[in-house]
Backbone:
């Protein structure tokens, strides 16, 4: 007799457990990808919003002098 023997029931339950683990991993990869896409969209949206706000400030005559007092960097307007 072999040292290690799996019955067909325990073997099928092992494969079922592996299938469950792979499905869970695939689902988590999907969630991670989805959240990265949402973060990329939000980052683009806020960059666009910041650009729009800056253009709006520059169009208003009274705000032009105030805009030049702002400290403008790559990471944003302070």
Residues:
């Amino acid at each position: 007799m072999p040292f290690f023997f799996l019955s067909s029931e325990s073997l099928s339950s092992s494969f079922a457990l592996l299938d469950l683990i792979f499905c869970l991993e695939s689902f988590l990869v999907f969630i991670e990808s989805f959240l990265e896409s949402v973060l990329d969209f939000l980052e683009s949206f806020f960059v666009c919003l910041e650009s729009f706000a800056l253009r709006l400030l520059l169009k208003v005559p009274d705000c032009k002098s105030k805009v030049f007092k702002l400290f403008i960097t790559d990471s944003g307007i302070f």
